[in-house]
Amino acid sequence: MARAGAVEAGAVEAGAAPLPPGVFRAMGTVVSVRPGVTGPQADAAVAAVATVFARWEARCSLFDPESELSRVGRRELALPDASEDVREAYALALHWRDATDGAFTPHRGDGMIDLNGVVKALAVEEAGTALDRAGFVRWAIDAGGDVLVAAALAPGSTQPAWPVGIVDPVDRGRLLARIDLDGARRRAVATSGSAERGDHIWTMPGLGPSPFLQVSVAAADLVTADVLATAVVAGGPAALDDLAERHDVDVLAVLRDGQLLATPGWPRAQPASAAGAGSPGGSGNRPISPMAS
Amino acid sequence: MRRRAMILASAASAAAILGGWQLGNAETTTTVPATTAAGATSSSGATTGMTGASSNGTSGTGSTQSSATSGAASSTGSTSSSGATDGTYTGSTVSTRFGDVQVQVTISGGAITDVTPLQLTDHDGRSVSISNRAAPMLREEVLQAQSASISMISGATYTSAAYLQSLQAALDQAGF
């Protein structure tokens, strides 16, 4: 029984520190928007993204007792009578349940339907579409570690890729790796794991705790990346091999002992020169010191 | 011709089984002819035991069309006493539980020397990689992130409380 991590109630603390421009709280986490422009247009882009998130939260948040999904859970609202957003998100979650042999599922152990595993990614995808329509061409959105970037302007165009850092789950002040999103075959990367919220992903029956501390999946779209990252954490190495072979994705998984597993397509550093003794482990994982505001 | 078709049929089904084996979900244990196994390009690493999904292609898949034949194959196909005409043949599409597989078979000296999966599509018709298995990777091998060049961070989902100590917050403040 795997599901995406539920957001703790009250995750939005009262009197929380102010956030930098282009950043807002939603779905129990924080969304960062890079509109690719500055000035009033940038503010409009962030507002457009926030609007999309607010709608999805009203539909599917289990921490809002008045959300449609909460009402469905209380049997106040029959699923067929729910909005198209909810029904389509549920159908999508069921599709992925089947596509992952149950490693990903929207059904919680207590019988509740939990769509967190797809809703955040759906919100980011829809927000991106809204930015496209508004004429933004080089945007990126990061919703609690789920990253989606604008499509490349044209196939084969030489616009620079978006470099995305992957957090080291052993030392969250450092970066473990980098993956460059090209805006085409790789527009999205999502990371799932137990580093942040405890073991928030239920593993498949009989598997025990996940052997993976953290799993990152890069794909052409964020729903695929997000769902498969969750499914691999839930399903273990067998799910990793199976799902990586069935989908066009790159995967980097961190085992509990810190060892890494990666699919062949995950970007690698240039091979160390034969002359050198190899770089010492962890070089380049430089911490970023938060800048004084 | 009929004999060649039978050989190709068995090659196709063997390849389908092999494709299932490469996909790594064993359901039934199947013995794969050694000649086929030798020519298979498997990237799934050190797997022992030829187990494969039982394919429904073990019979009736002999309707093969010869594709761009390499070298010695002639379209008329004078069959030697040892079996099939040398050349490269494209088999028909075989369904497995993972999707459809189409294979290319190379016959040399009357024996199958190579079986290459040409395509594998999932049930939605999209092509599927069959060589995307995860392997151990050293930390020195990963592409390192220079903080100055990074604009976004992907990590296990952080709460808004954790965000304030996160790398993403630092990048947001810096306006990357």
UniProtKB/TrEMBL annotation, chain A:
InterPro entries: ApbE (IPR024932), ApbE-like_sf (IPR003374). Keywords: FAD, Flavoprotein, Magnesium, Metal-binding, Transferase. Signal peptide: none annotated. One of its GO terms (molecular function) is transferase activity. It catalyses: L-threonyl-[protein] + FAD = FMN-L-threonyl-[protein] + AMP + H(+). Its EC number is 2.7.1.180. Its cofactor is Mg(2+). It comes from the Bacteria. SUPFAM superfamilies: ApbE-like (SSF143631). It is an enzyme of class 2 (transferase). Residues 265-293 are annotated as: Disordered. It holds the Pfam family ApbE. Residues 267-277 have a biased composition (Low complexity). The keyword Magnesium applies. This is FAD:protein FMN transferase.
TrEMBL record, chain B:
Coiled coil: none annotated. Keywords: Signal. The lineage of its organism: Bacteria, Bacillati, Actinomycetota, Actinomycetes, Micrococcales. It comes from the Bacteria. This is FMN-binding protein. Residues 1-26 form the signal peptide. Transmembrane segments: none annotated. Residues 36-88 are annotated as: Disordered. Residues 97-174 form the FMN-binding domain.
